[in-house]
User: Fold Flagellar protein FliT from Pseudomonas juntendi.
Amino acid sequence: MALLTPSPPADGKEINVNALQRLDDTCDALIGALGERDWDAIAKLDVACRTCIDEVLENHTMDQGLLREKLEGVLEVYRNLIDVTTGERQAIAEEMMQINQAKNASKVYHLFR
Assistant:
């Protein structure tokens, strides 16, 4: 007994909706991972998001206004991602500087003991 798979509609609208839904879902997951600072998940979701964007852009039958709105939303997610990662990187750099200062102070202390 063979399983029947539905053929996609000729107008491609179902494909558009699925691609846009995957893009929305991926962006939502990216926002969640960012909130948890789950950098491994963010890296994987970044690749998935790029794949979704490529898929959406390959389909030229999409409503341009809707496409612009979705891509602006993605852009906002990535702006937020950049802001958070820049802040995290700065915090790590400051922490490393404090560690180095403490290490140097310890060396000086041991010199004069």
